[in-house]
Amino acid sequence: MILALSIRDFVLIDRLDIEPGSGFTALTGETGAGKSIILDALALTLGAPADRALIRAGAEQASVAAEFAALPGHPIWDVLAEHGFEASPDETLTLKRVVRASGPARAFINDQPVSAALLAEAGETLVEIHGQHAASALMRPSSHRKLLDLFAGNEALLDACAEAHAARLAALETRERLESETEEALRTREWLAGAVEELGALAPQAGEAGSLTETRTRLMQSERVTEAIAEAEEALADAEIETALSKASRAAERICRLPGFDGADHPLAHAARAAAEALERALIETGEAEAAIAALESLVEHDTSALESAEARLFALRAVARKHMVDPDLLPDVLETLQERLNLVEAGEDALIRARKAESAANAAWHAAAEKLTVARKAAACQLEKAIVKELAPLKLGRAVIRVSVTPLGDDGGAHGADRVEFDAETNPGAGFGPLRKIASGGELARVSLALKCALAEAGSAGTLIFDEADQGVGGAVAAAIGERLIRLGRTRQVFAITHSPQVAAAARSQWLVEKGRGKSGGTRLRGLDESDRQEEIARMLSGAEITEEARAAAGRLLEDV
């Protein structure tokens, strides 16, 4: 519902702030006072086309902002989420439109810039405007299916149909993919068989190319390794290092055994013992070095055939890898993939047959779910037509017939079933049925909308309904009937009615008077009426320019009868 409406420099309105309440509110005032201007201002913030002519004379811009409260689960939150707009049901929503004398108009939701299209989409879920110049959701055939489903309570059937449709699409995708893959595989069967045979004979192993590269490199370097070992052995032999170290070690030992050195705690004695120990270690490590070189020599491979074999295998792997444009180490994966494709050719027909059967079953399941939805819709359509008939007669539309057509879409249906739903109208017998908006005219359009809203009960998401002169051209009992229906709608929604009918105004829970401002600035202003002011305004509506006591008394009776 609307919590607040703020209008600045809009046509005749200088500044206007409104905080409407719940229930049914009537907007009254003399012709030309500006009732329709307020409605136009609200329509602007709901996404209606912007025009610089809407800016009040002398102002640089016009702005309209409307603050709304919407409960969790309201469609507005899904609309905003689909557009990537961050908002929470814990906060209110403010829709704002600014029309500038220079530059394009701008739209905002909670002070964040948005497109006019998003503003209109959001506004459509929040407010319905019904009148001669307003095309509400009731007038658009694209919304009729949803309205009928809401009236019928078809949520569970819709969920089942959507689920069946999703399975149907998945089965279709699987079948088409298998057909494409099988067709492609059949075209390349000969090549596949040859490639699998070649790779199978080669039998590549994971990481084999890298291992062969290391082996080949090692074998190619064996001669250099042997030469280096020989050089090391020759150097050790020529230098007679072991003999020299042995002599030096014995000389150091003799020093340590001299009187005054053996066990003495003297720097010279310590140095002698350290020298002897170092020479002994050097002698030991020299022996270990000679043993290590000998071990290295024993491990050197001089296998020419092994080198040739490694090279041949490596070159074979690389050659096949080039054919498939992959790294040689990925050949096992290539073999697996090609084998799967070849298997698809050989067993593809069976898989395709299974996929076609699954698709047929999914189609049958969707048709069954759609048929249940169709049956429910047709039954609900009959109930809705009867409910509409009851509403039309008291509104002086007894000769009109509203038809709820449920026609098949066949295989063109989808998640919402296989039906096209349209509300058609015939306002005069024999005139033929046509779209609601084109058949109804003038005040009839708002009254048709009122009848439909009452018949549809809670169907539709908008929490605010606005009726623009639904009482045009009627009076007496018809106006009273309009008032009764507005009261009924006001029990669960916020309802506004722009009216010239005293009966409708008296039926409202609250009443606002739209009047021209006084003084040089003129303009339009709006004020809420208390009980005495309401009686005076309704008396004016009854009697005209001169308010009589009889009119005041009649106004009092109207207010008492509500």
Automatic annotation (TrEMBL):
Highest taxon above the source species: Bacteria
Keywords: ATP-binding, DNA damage, DNA repair, Nucleotide-binding
Entry annotated with the keyword ATP-binding: yes
RecF/RecN/SMC N-terminal domain boundaries: 5-514
Coiled-coil parts of chain: none
PANTHER family for this protein: DNA REPAIR PROTEIN RECN (PTHR11059:SF0)
Function of the protein: May be involved in recombinational repair of damaged DNA.
Name recorded for this polypeptide: DNA repair protein RecN
Organism field: Hyphomonas jannaschiana VP2
